[in-house]
Amino acid sequence: MAHYPIYTPQQQRILLITSLLVLGGFIIAGLQGYVSAFFGAGILYVIFRSIFYKLVYRKKWNRTLVISGIIVFSLLAIILPFLVLSFLLIDRIQYYAAHTDQILGLVKQVENLTHIKITSQENVRKILQQGGTLASRQLPSLAGGLLDFLVIIGLMFFTLFYMLSDEETFKEGLRRYLPFKRDTLSDLGEQLRNNVNANVLGQVVVSFVQGVLTGLTLWIFDVPDAAFWGTVAFFMAFIPVLGTPLVWAPAGLIQLSQGNTSQGVGILLVGAIVITNIDNVLRITLAKRMGDVHPLVTLVGIVVGVPIFGILGLVIGPTILSFFIVLMQVFAKQNKASREEAELDEANVEKRAEAKAEQ
């Protein structure tokens, strides 16, 4: 006696898709703490692919040697400096959160200078303590989470090694499973590369220059902890519009409140004329070379990315949001092409029908 499946072909397809979604959900839930590793690997792949292609395919260098060099360079030039800055930042934030009297004294001096009541001292103390707690959660710490951080870094470089060592298979998998046409994939790759360059390389360069200039300015005008505040300016520079003025403007006002008129005016002038304008010049220059990203995209990306990825969300958040916008543009373009093809086919059918009718 023959046995027939109890599901129709349509029901089988629906159950298959449902099973894939459920299993994919379990996989994502299990890897949610390490999602930043895969995003980081993808970002590094886009950044270094042109160098990899030139050395391996054109100059015929050893593939494993090139990949190892890329990993070592990215570790020394990108990961470790970012990690050191994070450790420096969290150490000083925790110090100021535990010694609120220094900050309260500065707030009082600013109030006396501007004759504006900022808030009560108790509220300022709570804000500082909450800021220290938030920094502990978002920034990597040697006291806790170091093992997770090492696992994320290891997983990121392992994924990057696979993506580059077996690049042909990786790219073929993308072409096979992504729901886009081959020419659309080329456009998608180009736009994603421009967005990664703008969000990662461009933003990091701009933030680094502004952080260094802010730190040097504060050091020249005898502001205590100039290196720390320069580090704060580096991270603040990722935030559009506000950015480094959140650092050098209060520093200038505090110097004025302490009677150091020349230092305070100097900080404000350098900040308003040099640091702010160098930001505009660099963004315009880099936008021509690497692609431009709207400040609103950067701001929303940071708001979305930081709670999920911690301090790395400053970079990953805007990049993901840019990817989403690019995918929407590609989707709209592909749909438009499909509609035009359908309209053309319909017009051809009508012409053939009219030709038969005339015969």
Automatic annotation (TrEMBL):
Q: Which InterPro entries match?
A: AI-2E-like
| Membrane as UniProt keyword | yes
Membrane topology term:
Multi-pass membrane protein
Which family would the database say this protein is a member of? Belongs to the autoinducer-2 exporter (AI-2E) (TC 2.A.86) family.
**Chief localization:** membrane
Q: What's the protein name? A: AI-2E family transporter
Give any Gene Ontology cellular component. membrane
Instruction: Name residues in a coiled coil.
Output: 330-359
Which compartments is it annotated to reside in? Membrane
Membrane-spanning intervals of the chain: 12-31, 37-57, 64-90, 142-164, 200-221, 227-249, 261-278, 298-331
Species of the source: Fibrella aquatilis
Record key words, sorted: Coiled coil, Membrane, Transmembrane, Transmembrane helix
- Known Pfam families for this protein? AI-2E_transport
